[in-house]
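Appendix B. Raw example, untouched.
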Amino acid sequence: MARPVWTGVLGFGLVSLPVGLYTATGSHTIRFHQLQRGTADRIRNRRVNERTGDEVDLGEIVKGYDTGGEYVIVEPQELDDIAPGRSKALEVSGFVDLNAVDPIFFYRTYYLGPHGEQYGKVYALLQRALTESNKAGIATFVMRGREYLVALKAEDDLLTLHTLHWADEIRDPHHEVPDLPGKAEPTAAEVKMAQQLIDALSTDWNPDDFHDTFQEKVKALIEAKAAGKSVEKAEPAAQPTGVVDLMEALRASVERARSPKDTGEKASASKDTRRSEKPAAKKRTGPSAGGSLRSLTKAELYEKAAKAGVKGRSHMTHDQLADALAHTGRGRHKA
């Protein structure tokens, strides 16, 4: 069984409950050591006195706040002495609607368990009350020399504690993010088509459907290099969608996202019909190739043009893109 990272007393009203805080998440990030290039020599970080160059023992290190030329020295014990409630109180100041806290405030999740079997009834009472009221308790407490703002929630059959950012830690996006759209407004048709795309891509949330593919590729890279093999490079990132091509890109995305019953069978049938009507011929890069390219949407043509490096593609019409691809010999339509 895991050891609690913090123990204390949870209080709400005149009710108190001894609790333990347990880590709820872990990381599967692959850890690398630092080595000097060309050797197997590890690089170590050391605590060094910048004036003498001597290494300093951890027990000899204190905290100092620079007041402008002089340092105010603060000992670790002094921080513990001023901690509210001696770092052992988790006092709920109030309860809010579960959906009232904006997701940007959430930082880290912990499991909260009763610290002793005899407190199971009080624990179960709070868990059930939070579940049925759809509320979250807001509290503060101190852990490891730092005060935290937290939200206490009921999850299934247990209580969870979510650390929150303080309000002054949330940055104003209008000061942080350049090139926000401002007065730029999409057309009603574009909004409708985007909603159709969202509907076509809608699914049930199942976290087990997702996994860290980047870490898998890092592992594959390590295994391949250890075996003296090479790894193929990933496909380049997609090109940004131009404003001129936005509607065509949305339409093509909707067609691709819909189920085979809606579009796939019809598309397949129409392609089979076109194949049966045309005699077999050697593929060329001339007019016939341009003719087959014209059966693609403008968004599909634009994607091919981007891969082929066609210059000026963002200003071309549907037919101009087809002709340009036909002359490059790299945009032949593959049935």
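End of appendix B.
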